[in-house]
Design brief:
Helices cover about 5% and strands about 55% of the residues. It is mainly β. It has a six-stranded antiparallel β-sheet with strand order 23-33-24-29-30-31, with no helix packed on it. The protein has a five-stranded mixed β-sheet with strand order 4-3-2-1-19. Strands 17, 18, 20, 21 and 22 form a five-stranded antiparallel β-sheet that branches. The longest helix has 8 residues. It is globular and about 70 Å long. The protein starts with a helix and ends in a 13-residue tail after the last strand. The relative contact order is 0.14. The structure holds 2,5-dideoxy-2,5-imino-D-mannitol. 2,5-dideoxy-2,5-imino-D-mannitol binds next to strand 1, strand 5, strand 9, strand 13 and strand 17.
């Protein structure tokens, strides 16, 4: 083991069952594709330091969406090429048995950033990639449009034609997804914006568009320089008419989401889980950025986007603890005995009864100097993660993160919580998720407790599993 690998293996904040590169930086998932029975995820990767820059495409493959094998870096910037300053985000498609990556090449001209669209192909089942020698295939934004950006292609096929969305924004108007058409993935014709947002409501720039059918609707995902929004609506005449808008994650650490459709027809979503600690801490730790747990998407009865962690994750469940019928009161302050941990799955069902707020406390120190609250407020109809006291370290982000979750009369709150060291995922009632980061500094911040405010709530049942680690073999990455 190298010094860096030893350091990473000993880092108590480094997740054990979320995928991440073997070292250094990752951000957006790219080119997510189900290929010959396996799941491939590429990702924005700086193989040299644990900070954003000189973007490459890292690559990993999985048979079960849980265990991953690192593959060689797929794309690296080409000196003097249109991607000399970075191979930015994009997608992968199957062109009659030949895999094609479509990505944004970045270079600088007189200090001005130039974003163009490039392609690459592989003839060895995606292990090595050859860039198209005539790149870029789209060299500038449509004439006459003053855009705020031009990147992150999403490509699909309809009949004999390919379509490409490019993430963009129209100056003074709002984020936009620009639609192109091609017969051969090389010559592209600009059609029109598939959809344009409103700068006040949905941001000035849409990064990483992802567009796909779901049930009898279509879904457009866009990343608005902070959050990933979804729109559910109708796709007709190559235009998209959104009916419903929502947030793909109501925490503060999930971004640049991209999906794939697998052999069972499931639409599976991945996102980038970014860090909540300082740049200095990230650089010093030797790693930064995590892939979210894969989520299966669905449409809820009310037309909003539903999401659940993929069932495959259950293979990680180890030692099991079970609880039923616990009255949770404002006086419940003791931690549960016999169970604790920083790599756990918790599946809990609460009856809110008359409580104004009730919560599960995780990563609690015995003297409560560190603790993270996952709480539902009946008054504000919101689900939150409160990180005010998650860590004694001054170098990490704090605050309450969450969003709306309305329980209808008689509905219980079902939480699937995944603790994986510095990552917390809270899936609620199959319709929302909070992805968050916490960095407890004490080795004994491992306890779990229950609490209610105003009046009592009832924990109907709770299962807790210790989660096994995934070890991720492979990788030929430089670790400088
Ligand atoms: N990250 C990539 C861009 C994309 C942004 C660069 C979103 O392609 O717009 O690393 O996080």
């Amino acid at each position: 083991m190298t010094n860096l690998q030893e350091k990473l293996a000993a880092d108590p904040q480094r997740p054990r069952y979320h995928f991440l590169p073997s070292a250094n930086w990752m951000n957006d998932p790219n080119g997510t594709i189900f290929w010959k029975g396996k799941y491939h995820v590429f990702y924005q990767h700086n193989p040299y330091v644990a900070w954003w820059g000189m973007m490459h495409w890292g690559h990993a493959v999985s048979e079960d969406l849980v265990h991953w094998t690192h593959l060689p870096i797929a794309l690296a910037p080409t000196p003097y090429g249109p991607d000399k300053d970075g191979c930015w985000s994009g997608c992968a498609v199957d062109n009659g048995g030949v895999p094609i990556i479509v990505y944004t090449g970045v270079s600088h001209d007189d200090g001005r950033r130039v974003e163009v669209q490039c392609i690459a192909t592989s003839d060895d089942d995606m292990i090595t990639w050859k860039k198209y020698p005539e790149n870029p295939v789209i060299g500038s934004p449509p004439k006459g449009l003053e855009v705020t950006g031009f990147r992150d292609p999403c490509v699909w096929k309809e009949g004999d034609n390919w379509y490409m969305l490019i993430g963009s924004g129209i100056k003074d108007i709002g984020g936009a997804a620009l639609l192109y058409k091609s017969k051969d993935l090389i010559r592209w014709e600009y059609l029109h914006p598939l959809c344009i947002g409103d700068k006040e409501k949905t941001g000035t720039m849409w990064e990483c568009p992802d567009f796909f059918p779901l049930g009898d609707k279509h879904v457009l995902l866009v990343s608005t320089l902070g959050t990933t929004l979804y729109f559910v609506g109708t796709y007709a005449d190559h235009r998209f008419h959104p009916d419903i808008r929502g947030n793909t994650d109501i925490g503060g650490h999930f971004y640049a989401a991209r999906s794939l459709i697998d052999g069972d027809g499931r639409r599976i979503l991945f996102g980038w889980v970014w860090e909540g600690c300082s740049e200095a801490a990230q650089r010093a730790s030797g790693w930064a950025g995590v892939l979210s747990l894969p989520r299966v998407l669905s449409l809820c009865d009310d037309g909003t986007l539903g999401m659940e962690p993929v069932p495959e994750l259950k293979v990680l469940r180890g030692r099991h603890y079970h609880y039923t019928e616990i009255r949770v009161t404002p006086a419940s302050s003791a931690l549960l005995t016999g169970v604790q941990g920083d790599c756990l799955e918790i599946d809990a069902e609460f009856d809110p009864c008359d409580a104004e707020e009730f919560c599960l406390k995780v990563r609690c120190a015995p003297d409560a100097t560190e603790q993270t609250l996952i709480f539902y407020s009946d008054k504000s109809k919101r689900l939150n993660v409160d990180r005010e006291r998650s860590s004694l370290s001054p170098e990490v982000s704090r605050g309450i993160q969450g969003g709306p979750l309305e329980l209808v009369a008689g509905e219980t709150l079902n939480l699937r919580i995944f603790l994986d060291r510095s990552v917390v995922d809270v899936f609620a009632n199959g319709r929302t998720c909070i992805t968050d980061r916490i960095y407890p500094s004490r080795a004994d911040s491992l306890g779990i407790g229950l609490f209610a405010c105003g009046s009592n709530a009832k924990l109907k049942s709770m299962d807790i599993w210790e989660m096994k680690s995934i070890s991720t073999p492979g990788s030929s990455e430089p670790h400088r």
